[in-house]
Amino acid sequence: MINQRIKGSKILNKFDFLIRFLYCRVPLLSSGIHKLLFWKLYISDYEALDAKFEKIKQVFADSNISFKNKVILELGPGNSYLNAYNFLLNGAKKVILVDKFPRQLHSKRQRNYFKEELEFITNKYDKQSLFFVNSSGKLESKYIEFIDKDLADIENIVADIIYSVSVLEHVRNPGKLIRQASEILSANGCMYHHIDMRDHYNFARPFLFLRYSDYVWNTFLTKEGLSFTNRYRYTDFRKLFEYYGLAITWEEKRRFDLENTEVHNKFKGLTDLDVGIWDVVLEKN
C-alpha cells in the first residue's frame, strides 16, 4: 500500500497536468487512471467517519449543543449512512441526506458496504435491532430521508443542524450553497463543516494544484461530477460564512508546509494560505 502511494505521488509530481487532463477530459482513459492512481479517492471509510463523528460530538457537547429531537441535514454523504445512524442513536429526531451525485446502493460493492455499516453501528451501540431499519432491512423514511438534488433545488425543509465532511471544497459555487443552507437553518441552528482544501489527487504535495490559473484549472483539469475541487481558501470560506450571517463559535485549523510550493499570482499574498484542513462550527446570527 505504501509503495503504491509513493509511486503514485512520484507519477503525479512529474506528469501532473497531463494526468489531470486525461482523467477529467478523456473518458476512455478516465477509468484506467482511476484504477491505477485514484481508486481510494471516492470510497467512504466508515471507521474514519465514525471517529470524525465522535470528535465533533464532543465539540458540540462542550458547546452545550444537543442532538436530541433535532432535525439534522447532512450534505454530500456519498455512499455512507454512518453519520445518519450516529445522529439518530444520539437522540436526533430525523436525518435528511442531500447529495447531488448520489452513490448509495448503485452497485454490488455499495450494497455490501451498506450491510457492513449497519453491522458496524449495531456492534458499536450493542443493539439487537435498530429502530430506523424495518423488518425488510430497509431504512424508515420517517427517520432517514435521502434527497438526490442540489440543495438550492429543495424547498420546504428546515434543519436544526447542518453537517458536512469534505463537501464544500467540491462545490462549484460555495456561496450559493452557503446562502441556501443559512436560509434552511432554524433560528437557533448551527452548522459543522470539515473542509479539506488540499489537493485531493496528491496529499504528499497538498498545494500543488494552486499553480494553475482559474481558466486552466476549470477548463482542462477538473470536471464537476467526476473530479471537481473549487480551490477556495480559508479566507474565502470565512468571508462567505460571515456574509451570509453565520458566526464562527469554534474552529480548528491544520496547516501544511508551503515551502518550495509554486502558486499562481491569484493566490499570492493571501493570509492563512497554508491552512489545508478547517473544522468549523457556526451559528446563525
Fold topology:
Blueprint: H1 2-14, H2 16-25, H3 27-37, H4 46-62, E1 71-75, H5 82-88, E2 94-98, H6 108-124, E3 144-147, E4 159-165, H7 174-184, E5 185-196, H8 214-220, H9 234-243, E6 246-255, E7 275-284
Parallel strand pairs: 1-2, 1-4, 2-3, 4-5
Antiparallel strand pairs: 5-7, 6-7
Helix pairs in contact: 2-3
Structure notes:
This protein is an alpha/beta fold. It has a domain at 41-102 and 139-197 and 232-284: 3-Layer(aba) Sandwich (Rossmann fold), CATH 3.40.50.150. The chain is built from 9 helices and 7 strands. The chain has helices at 2-14, 16-25, 27-37, 46-62, 82-88, 108-124, 174-184, 214-220, 234-243, and strands spanning 71-75, 94-98, 144-147, 159-165, 185-196, 246-255, 275-284. Strands 3-2-1-4-5-7-6 form a 7-stranded mixed beta sheet, with helices on both faces. Helix 7 links the parallel strand 4 (159-165) and strand 5. Helix 2 packs across helix 3. The longest helix has 17 residues, at 46-62. Residues 1-8 have low confidence and may be disordered.
